[in-house]
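just leaving the lab so this will be short. below you get a single protein, a line of residues and a line of whole numbers that encode the local backbone shape. id like you to explain what the token line says about the fold, in plain words if possible. thanks a lot i owe you, the record is right below:

…
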Amino acid sequence: MDATPAPPRVIVTRPAAQAGAWVDALRALGVDAAALPLIGIEPPAQPERLEAAWAGLTGHALVMFVSANAVQKFFAAARGRPWPAGLTAGCTGPGTQSALRAAGVPEEAIVAPAAAGSRFDSEALWALLCARDWRGRSALVVRGEAGRDWLAETLRAAGAEVAFVAAYRRVAPRWGAAERALYAAALAAPRACVWLFSSSEAVRHLATLAPPPAWQAARVLATHPRIAEAARAAGFGQVDLVEPRPQAVAQALQAAA
């Protein structure tokens, strides 16, 4: 009789600051998981702009955070200042929402898509904000040094003024021996792994490390349709959508088994 194949290992590609927590959560659910960060996070080129953003925070009606990294790096520049009363903090995913809570933002100040929902993007956030009158109001987007501008453009079309501040820079990952060994093992046995992507940029970084044919036998779980599209373009053979929650990843693996 043939031996039952071992369950695949989930490779978590989030930045290091979030990857470890995801690995721990997946392992607690019985999933074999390992971290292989495909995006590095470094300080912004102009950190003084974070101080200026904090100094002018009360002039905004909304501060939108694009990621948990944006929250953590922005609040690292707070110098003990509390979140201003009446200021809305917007975000698109449960991880960023948890980071806002941990940073001390009151629950009633946070606007985010429901954790039980199926969409975690700017469009889902706008659905919660669009009923407000944005004419003459100001919004600040906290992000890396570049990013998607859909929400900013939509707010401007609704009459708001929108500014950006870079809280960090996204760079290619710097791996140690353990990460290089994990990558080599995944490349050698692509069917033994499932790549968990929460960023199109992470997909692009991986695609620069090995040519697309290397990934035709590999499987991807992507947390957004745009990320899934990037994975297919990079040559991954099987790409499925999954909600950005460890429980959803575990359920997707069980369904495939």
